[in-house]
User: Which sequence fits this backbone?
């Protein structure tokens, strides 16, 4: 039986072997069929090759000279116009992975003088960012100092600036990836930022800087590590909401936990639990995204899709890089062999507060039913600059409660249209409360004192809504209670249910899916007098796909004629679900 470390290296070799041919003589990357290449892809390739070199010491693979390939990719990235700052950061760390001293770095020696000067100039340029791009600034500073291109090290200052902004935008110390608007775009990029920054620090030529900044990183990264036991499903599904989930929702979480184990951020008595979480996260990644016959990462096909900005090439090189890192980290943390001790599944409900201020409250409610295995995540967060269903405040549970990736549909939420304002009970709340109800049930409720529209603009003076979700076993109830401040005409109401299926090939045995009984949805109260439309069949429509499988049906509850809403009256929509949760057979 291969050890985890060796298994990761074998997979990295296979992935690189299938994708190195896409690197062109000029260092640019040929896109996969039907996709467009990204300007930062050469940088991702360079970093993957650098991590492969660190993990194996090998400079050739499948007849390719990896040092020459890395030099070509770095050159292409440095001369990309306009400069792709994320690509610069990846390529700088890729160069640094071959050795911190220019005199003994085989890739640096292959670069022509013009490229070397270009690297010096590119790494000196510094933009200021409020979002995850600040991690790229940190990586550029690490590379510039470590390669001896500067005697002044900006790394510490940039890390402090990043955490200052975390404190300004989140009362609980989580990473807000929003740069404008309502704020509170708490997504997977928070995990990625800490993983990437930690990888950069590991390559820093001055280990003293790394040792000084690790406690700072720990303060914030630990918050995400502590979420993992509640977040990760029994079948290994990791981060499942917000943009860029899917394959990266597995990879970033695995990296964060392994880094936490290496740095001693996880107490000894918690290690068995985290080793089990790691095993499950990895198996879900392996079985859901890896073509096991060919040995490469498969993001898109006729049944599923991925985040629009993630190309298949980039994901393959990123996965190869991560596998090399996991291989090294697994040796350091000494992954245990044998069957792990599995804790019995308990029924739990928890609200993780991301930000609590007098302006807004945001967070993530996670519920797990120990008996049926139902496990869901309700994010109350901003969706950032692009509205999609990924960030909406409904139960995200792939296989049970699905949603279309990259597009907007009002999934399990009433969308109310008042003239030019289209409102949704999502994005933010006030008075967020969770607790135990009758018979060991859980509830999660919040208010919106002012309704908010799809542009995430608070519409003052229109009305308010109170939202309550109830969970008891596999029974879920939700109630939306609207009041208006003055007489107003509701032009339209929409509420949508999505019915999807797991992937026919890439799926985890024991994963969750809907049984023959489906959602068993009933409308308990509807003061809007909406009606169910004919089921919309979207099986053949490529617009409606998830990260995990194909969407077959959309079921809309609609009121499409005006309703005069009067102040002093509460208008309720209450919907109940009792989904039949069935494990997927092999």
Assistant:
């Amino acid at each position: 039986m291969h050890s985890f470390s060796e298994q990761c290296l074998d997979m990295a070799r296979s992935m690189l072997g299938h994708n190195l041919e896409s690197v062109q003589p000029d260092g640019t990357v040929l896109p996969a069929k039907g996709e467009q290449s990204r300007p930062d892809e050469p940088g991702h390739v360079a970093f993957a090759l650098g991590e492969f070199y660190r993990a194996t010491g090998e400079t050739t693979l499948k007849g390719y000279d990896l040092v020459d390939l890395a030099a070509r990719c770095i050159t292409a990235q440095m001369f990309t116009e306009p400069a792709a700052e994320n690509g610069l950061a990846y390529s700088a760390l890729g160069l640094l992975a071959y050795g911190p001293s220019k005199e003994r770095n085989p890739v640096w020696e292959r670069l022509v003088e013009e490229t070397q000067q270009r690297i010096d100039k590119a790494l000196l340029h510094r933009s200021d960012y409020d979002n995850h791009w600040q991690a790229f600034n940190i990586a550029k500073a690490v590379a510039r100092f470590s390669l001896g291109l500067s005697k002044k090290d900006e790394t510490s200052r940039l890390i402090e600036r990043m955490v200052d902004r975390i404190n300004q935008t989140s009362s609980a110390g989580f990473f807000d990836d929003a740069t404008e608007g309502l704020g509170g775009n708490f997504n997977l990029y928070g995990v990625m930022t800490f993983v990437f920054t930690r990888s950069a620090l590991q390559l820093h030529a001055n280990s003293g800087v790394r040792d000084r900044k690790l406690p700072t990183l720990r303060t914030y990264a630990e918050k995400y590590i502590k979420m993992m036991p509640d977040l990760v499903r029994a079948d290994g599904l990791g981060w499942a909401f917000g943009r860029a989930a899917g394959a990266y929702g597995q990879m970033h979480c695995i990296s964060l936990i392994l880094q936490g184990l290496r740095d001693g951020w996880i107490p000894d008595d918690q290690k068995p639990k985290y080793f089990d979480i790691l095993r499950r996260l990895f198996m879900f990644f392996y079985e859901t995204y890896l073509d096991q016959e060919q040995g490469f990462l498969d993001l898109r096909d006729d049944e599923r899709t991925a985040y629009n900005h993630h190309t298949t090439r980039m994901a393959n090189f990123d996965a190869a890089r991560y596998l090399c890192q996991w291989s090294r980290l697994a040796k350091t943390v000494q992954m245990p062999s044998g069957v792990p001790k599995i804790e019995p599944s308990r029924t739990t409900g928890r609200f993780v507060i991301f930000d609590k201020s007098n302006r807004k409250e945001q967070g993530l409610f996670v519920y797990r039913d120990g008996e049926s295995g139902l496990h869901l995540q309700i994010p109350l967060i901003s969706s950032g600059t692009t509205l999609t269903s990924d960030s909406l405040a409904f139960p995200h549970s792939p296989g049970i409660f699905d949603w279309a990736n990259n597009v907007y549909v009002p999934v399990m939420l009433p969308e109310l249209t008042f003239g030019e304002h289209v409102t949704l009970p999502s994005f933010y709340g006030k008075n967020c409360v969770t607790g135990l109800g009758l018979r060991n049930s859980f509830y999660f409720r919040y208010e919106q004192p002012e309704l908010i529209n799809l542009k995430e603009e608070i519409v003052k003076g229109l009305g308010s809504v109170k939202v309550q979700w109830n969970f008891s076993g596999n029974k879920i109830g939700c109630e939306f209670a609207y009041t208006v401040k003055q007489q107003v005409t509701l032009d339209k109401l929409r509420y949508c249910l999505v019915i999807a299926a797991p992937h026919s090939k890439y799926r985890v045995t024991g994963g969750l899916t809907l049984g023959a009984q489906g959602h068993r949805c009933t409308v308990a109260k509807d003061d809007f007098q909406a009606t169910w439309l004919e089921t919309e069949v979207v099986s053949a429509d490529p617009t409606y796909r998830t990260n995990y499988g194909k969407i077959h049906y959309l079921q809309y509850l609609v009121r499409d004629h005006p309703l005069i809403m009067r102040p002093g009256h509460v208008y309720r929509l209450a919907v109940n679900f009792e989904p039949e949760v069935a494990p997927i057979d092999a």
Q: What stands out?
A: The first helix runs from residue 4 to 19. The first strand starts at residue 60 and ends at 61. The two ends are 22 Å apart (CA to CA).
